[in-house]
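SAMPLE LOG
Freezer: B-3
Tube label: C17
Construct: single chain, 189 aa
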Amino acid sequence: MRDDLRPYWVKKAYLRWRDWYVDYFLRPECASLGRFCTFMKPRYVIISGPNIHIGDCFTAVAEPMHRVEISVWGREAGAGTIRIGRAVLMSPGSRINASDEIVIGDGVMMANGTYITDSDWHTIYDRTQRAREVTPVHIGDNVWLGDHATVLKGVTIGANSVVAARSVVTRDVPENVIVAGNPARVVRE
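STRUCTURE (predicted):
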């Protein structure tokens, strides 16, 4: 890791600016934003839509070419919800897009490029219509989503499970297992 050679006053000024940016631009986009949240390079974090609840000690690490995105685009105005628990980490390039409901437990880690969605966003034959059924996503406590893992609609991932890199989760995952592949299957308990 590279040493921080900035003078102390420069670092303190940057941290004050970062806190101001979060309070001025990101906090108003959330229905609730917990205490002690850290947004690394907050200019590259995108939060949009209603009903976004983020718990305490949340960390988002964003980069210019790998933004962190949390968005709700409900079926009608004011619809759709994202609930993120305490001590959750979102790495660069992570995206959460909700149409109806996505719930993420405490202590979840999302590696680079992770994508979570609860909708296909349009039907096969009519790209202006969404499917009628509601397919929420629920991710349990202490889940680790590996590099570029994808979690699709209607999935529940049990607590303490690991989703391997590049896996595509299309069905429920039990607690305390490792899943891998496309579609993801249990490879180890």
